Automatic annotation (TrEMBL):
Keywords (A to Z) from UniProt: Lipid metabolism
Organism, scientific name: Salix viminalis
One Pfam family from the record: ECH_1
Domain of life: Eukaryota
EC number: 5.3.3.8
Official protein name in the record: Delta(3)-Delta(2)-enoyl-CoA isomerase
Family label: Belongs to the enoyl-CoA hydratase/isomerase family.
One BP term from GO: fatty acid beta-oxidation
Amino acid sequence: MCTLEKTDDNIFVLTLTGDDEHRLNPTLIGSILSALRDAKEQATSGSVLITTSRGKFFSNGFDLAWAQAAGSKPKAIERLHHMVELLKPVVAELISLPMPTIAAINGHAAAGGLILALSHDYVYMKRDRGVLYMSEVDIGLTIPDYFNVLLRAKIGSPSARRDVLLRGAKVRGDEAVSMGIVEGAHDNEERLREATMSHGKQLASRKWDGEVYKEIRKGLYPELCVVLGLGEAEVIAKL
């Protein structure tokens, strides 16, 4: 469901594979979490993670078909809650990963898929096909607490958050850049890959200490760390 490869430049590339929409069901979520933990175990000073996917979707959110396959509405809701709880450790792992992280959105990133992308330090997307979309207001779902906290932390403009959450705006590349959601939008997959790899190499060349980097990141998002159960940032001084 996903692969993890390491380049000669100390960059881990996590790629979502499998079906085209990369719906977040227990199998895919478990595969992503395992890959992140493998990257953490192999990390050295200067490691970087880039997450991307194959096909026209980065991720189209939770696997609602899997939830509905449970039969009754209560059982479907129970499955949906289960997926929400399973994704939480993935977000926590990314926020506490001891290396810089970049998401390369090569297609649509909707609902939980957008949350997965925004859990990275930097986000890039395609200009032609990429769309960011929080679908909950349109399909009749409320938003989990850690989703809301992450969105407040990562989308600084109140009007941008309003449009994303309360208007269900489908945000394309250039608009996402102007709203401060992504770093850059690129015309095609090749240019997106070049931009993210170039940025990854720049970050890797700094050879930062991963534990220090992780704690500085945690300090940026204290409310998010609380809701994710990560605790307060630790003081590390390597003099």
